[in-house]
Amino acid sequence: MTLWRPLGACAGLSIGSVVAVSLLAPATAERLAVASWAQAATGLGAAMACGAAAVHTRGRARQVWALFSLALAIWATTDATLAWLEGAGREVPEVSLLDIGWLAFYGPAVLATLLLYLRLRPERGAQGPIDGLIITVAVASLAWVTALQDAAPAADGGPEAALLVALYPTLDLLCLTALGWIVLRHKRRAPVWLYWVVAAFCLQSTASVAYLISILPGPDLDVLATAAFMGAAWCWTTAGLLRVRAPQRAWAAGTHDRQPVWSESVPFLCGIGVVGLAALRPDTELRAAAVTVAGLMAIRAMAALRVGRGLLTERDRLLVTDPLTNAYNRRFLAEEMERALSRAYRGAEPLSVIALDLDRFKEVNDRLGHDVGDRLLRETSAAVSSGLRTSDVFCRLGGDEFLILCATTDAAGAMVVAERARVRVLEVVERLAPDMGVGASLGVATFPHDAGDAETLLRNADTALYSSKERGRNVVSRYAPLDPETAPLPA
After folding, report:
1. How many distinct structural domains can be found in the chain?
2. Distance spanning both ends of the chain, measured CA to CA
3. pTM of the predicted model, to two decimals?
4. Structural domain of residue 10, as residue ranges?
5. Among residues 402, 406, 408, which one has the least CA distance to residue 329?
6. How do residues 5-50 score in pLDDT, each as one tens digit?
7. In principle, which of 90, 140, 267, 343 could form an S-S bond with 85, CB 3.0–4.6 Å?
8. Are β-strands 351-359 and 401-407 bridged in parallel, bridged antiparallel, or unpaired?
9. In whole angstroms, what is the distance from residue 53 CA to residue 246 CA?
């Protein structure tokens, strides 16, 4: 509130003064180029505020605000050049070299919008910019059919001037739809400064449309265009200053994979509308728009299919893996155990199970914290998994308990695999929790020698594991009905 009050007062005073002078003394305002100088001054202030936001931020955010600052500086410089020419009494046509400067504003502005969308996008993929392009082409096509096509020849500067000026609201609408998509998806979760950026593009679109109407036969809306341009500059200033005051990481967008219902229909209907207009009125411009929209809709469909396949793959992975360690979970173990036992029965092949438990893991959580404990579990899982064969299955049963399923592996081979896993666990412990006595106890049971079914095989591997605990921990034991034997160390 302490920031908005002085900014609002300055904005209202500046815009009101310029509008009053333009309405009450139009000849003086035109001679002194009041509107152009006012737009240049407010644009320069906006560029400085966005530059301050760029200095305050870092990474991609710094790039975004630096590009916005550059765009506004280009716009302010072009307005100042126009003001100087008008003050010197030179006639500036509707289409001039100054339009290169105003159009150059949209180079860094569009790029910054794309970077901002990629940083804050609410979904996977790039649905926002694609939908923005489709809606922009649809609105531009509708405006061309309903107004510009017939009025452009009579515009000041001819149809070329009308089409050139029409580019401004079109590009503003493109940025507005991409950033508005983020605000609509996140609603109250969106940062306040993003609302002001969206408001700036809204006012720029209004000003561009007012300027376009002014060069067409009809009402003169130059005063409205000036007020809207100045309002947009003050919105940019507010957005930049709010970003300066915000924390470095003010907001994390997150990912919402379920699209709103309207987003699946509105762009499609807009695209179909453009194609329908091109069929009813086969103008060259509408045909080009129809081809563009058709290509964008095809890209959108392919992107949606790719994202859908990725989500299905991710869902299937999460169903069978442990989220902390990325090892397989109990559900996958039960299914894989059943398949492995069936193959072992049919081929009369051995099947070994290795139960693994971390010794004194609770002390790691108690003394070093759960963050270190979770990291120990993750790195243990990665280290043990990297030393297994492609046919082996590594699962997390829960807590610090793991299990290795070794197909076509007899007891001797399983003992070698278990010992290798024990050594790898010690390497991880030495790096993360040294001098705490943490190690790995392992137990081995083999089908069909030690058990004839899955439940008994897992129970016997667990029995061998507890035998390792009784023998002093950090050893490998093989299941035996009476006495577990010490694991022979590999040569």
Report:
1. 2
2. 74
3. 0.66
4. 4-248+261-316
5. 402
6. 787 788 888 888 888 888 888 887 777 788 888 899 999 999 999 9
7. 90
8. antiparallel
9. 10
